[in-house]
Automatic annotation (TrEMBL):
It holds the Pfam family DUF488-N3i. It comes from the Bacteria. This is DUF488 domain-containing protein.
Amino acid sequence: MPVTIKRIYDEVGKDDGVRVLVDRLWPRGLSKEKVKVDCWMEQVAPSTQLRKWFHHDPEKFCEFKERYKEELMNEKEKGLQLEELKSLVAEYRNVTLIYSAKDQRHNQAVVLKEILERQ
């Protein structure tokens, strides 16, 4: 099951499949009409507190991953959206997780991709 990740500012590709925005906040400078996403799963994103603590610091990424996974397991709304995301992947088999962070290797979409690929 191919799960890919892509920045919201990158061009939409014909192979993107179902595009799911996994950010808590809407990306800056983009209107909802301009953005090509099939759904926005804001609840599956890290909490505001965790996001601010992490601040996309690569040195904190390992701890961020662990804290984020705990949130996904322990917070009901996050868990429900994660299950919904797993269902999308199982049904469509071609899902692209969309995020807005500049750092392409240290963000929540990377963690979600790992989780989804283990299913």
